[in-house]
Amino acid sequence: MTTIPSQAAVAATGLRKSFGDQVALDGIDLEVAEGTIFALLGPNGAGKTTAVKILSTLLKADAGTATVAGFDVATQAAKVRESISLTGQFAAVDEILSGRENLLLVARLRRVPDAGQLADALLARFQLTEAANRRVATYSGGMRRRLDIAMSLIGNPPVIFLDEPTTGLDPQGRIEVWNSVKQLAGQGTTVLLTTQYLEEAEHLADRIAILDQGRIIANGTLAELQQLLPPAKVEYVEKQPSLEEVFLAIVGAAGKDGHAGNDPSIGTDKSGTDE
Questions:
Q1: Mean of the per-residue pLDDT values for the chain?
Q2: Is 137 helix (H, G, I), strand (E, B) or coil?
Q3: Total of domains in the chain
Q4: Is 43 within a domain?
């Protein structure tokens, strides 16, 4: 088992994964501190979903090591699964049931005591109390995603993986989810999220890793990434580059070696994070 610092909730060293002759991950390293939000930012096909699948034990790496909550993902997979929750790209909620019934179902499946009390507390925490007894089919996209995240918290997992949590949401729904994610970290939960939205990473993350063509090509805080480009000057006003400018400059430079990114795991595992 790989030993990591106690403050690291998620750590990976040299993770590699290929599908045939297609390289999905080309030796990535990352470390996520406890109680922080870490964004894995990259375009479609960069390898984000493959990384999440390996860290959540749904897929085995070809090489490298990784630990989650102190447990090795290869040799202690069961312990990792007990320590995490995984929310995929689309809300996994039952539309026939009400919001409260969805929460009760998961709580009973996980044999959590006082399921009703827990469901009510989560509904209040995610501003869903007024809609508690409505069928989820009547919920907006943002409400469904908030319910999905609430369901993922049952059992108090210390680490949560969110794979493109705002895919398909309108701007208001995205803001609702952003607020929920920030609340998680504020209460001590470690969040690793993948996203292709630059604004999302900029708004939420304590640290950001830019993944392109299976490689992490930049990793740091927003301020550190901004330092990779000189500040733009417009006459008397000095302007720091935005994350979008940093991202496009870095990815453009990395792409000059001529091979396009592709994440072959996307769409190949219909029971995993891609649905």
A1: 85
A2: helix
A3: 1
A4: yes
